Amino acid sequence: MGLNDPFLHSISMQRCSGFLYAFQNAHAFIKAEVYKRVLVIGADFNSRYLDFADRSTAILFGDGVGAIVMEAASSGTIDCVIGGETDVLGSITAPNLTDHPNPLLPRNLIAHEHFKMKGSDVFKFAVKTMEIEINTILKKHNLSMDDIDYVVSHQANQRILDSAKTCAQGTNT
């Protein structure tokens, strides 16, 4: 891959949006010509914090790893938006999930600390936020959804992605 003298950078505190934070950092490094090529790896180990009896949360999350190699190109990343909102405070709760010295602790040792969310509140918020952000980027760059091949989102739920795409295309706004 031609990765000589690699620079390693961990963005583990960003949880589910960590991959996009790393993506944006890599894009900035490449654009500034600090690096020619960047390997971005994202990994989540959510199952250790899920209450599998809680169907409003457990069915939406899993464990996974993905990676991409990024480099400068004549076409590619158009824009990247990262932000946070307080509109969903209370709809998502994650008890001190990063305070365990050993990330591979068995589930039964941390079973009392579960990630919880109010699924319908988060669904509505995610669709609305993605619609706003996609439309802002399209307007900023004078594009339509027909000009876009991929939207990379930290949101992995296919129903949310499909709804946001429909709204951004203007058929459901």
Structural summary, described in words:
The protein is of the alpha+beta class. The chain has a domain at 92-168: Peroxisomal Thiolase, Chain A, domain 1. It contains three helices and four strands. Strands 1-2 form a two-stranded antiparallel sheet. It has a two-stranded antiparallel sheet with strand order 3-4. Helix 2 (119-140) packs across helix 3 (158-168). The protein is globular and about 45 Å long.
Instruction: Give the radius of gyration.
Output: 18 Å
For the termini, the CA-CA separation is 44 Å
What overall form do the CA principal axes indicate? globular
- CATH topology type of the domain at 92-168: Peroxisomal Thiolase, Chain A, domain 1
CATH level 4 superfamily of the domain at 92-168: Thiolase/Chalcone synthase
Question: Main beta sheet: strand number and arrangement?
Answer: 2 strands, antiparallel
The average pLDDT value, as a whole number, equals: 76
Helix content: 25-40%
Compile the SSE list and pairings.
Layout: H1 18-31, E1 37-45, E2 63-71, E3 92-93, E4 116-117, H2 119-140, H3 158-168
Antiparallel strand pairs: 1-2, 3-4
Helix pairs in contact: 2-3
Give the key terms.
two-stranded antiparallel sheet, single chain, Peroxisomal Thiolase, Chain A, domain 1, 173 residues, alpha+beta, 13% strand
In short:
The chain is of the alpha+beta class. It has three helices and four strands; from the N terminus they run αββββαα. The chain has a domain of 77 residues: 3-Layer(aba) Sandwich (Peroxisomal Thiolase, Chain A, domain 1).
